[in-house]
User: What shape does this take?
Amino acid sequence: MRQGTQIITGAFVIAALLSAPVAAQERKKSPPPPSPELFEALEACRAIADNVQRLACFDGTSAKLSAAVDAKQIVVIEEKEVKKTKRSLFGFRLPDLSIFGGNDNDSEEDKTLVTTIKSLGRAEGGRWNIGIPEGAVWQTTEAMTFNPKVGDAVEIKTGVMGGYFLRVGKKRAVRAKRIE
Assistant: This one.
């Protein structure tokens, strides 16, 4: 009977190893979108040798670019605004858009949010609803052995299987989910 259990366990391990490449392929990021035509036109202006023609090209293309921004056909976003948005959306599955980091979504910064507790509410079973300044509310999915306080430091990390772990101060991390 023990040998049969080992064979079944071995089969599960082999199946898991064989399915890993398939799972990795499913998580592949889409390629970045092509550059907008106006930016490509600006790049083409740089290649013009004659100063007068190059300036005329830059003037014409920059006027079109400015008009496109005014018409909201092109939106210019500063990096700090993207980071602020990513912090406020931490815990939600983001679409695979290059403005949210494209292929660098696996950086440590994208897997961890360090902030403070803005508000607290008790939930049943020793769990807590924890509001943070970024606008999110997280609920612990297991009881905490201590009472957190408003202003305490909190770290929320993405787990291996897509779950989240919440640590208040230096206390033990507990599982959590974003509810707002």
Q: What stands out?
A: The first strand starts at residue 112 and ends at 116. The radius of gyration is 25 Å.
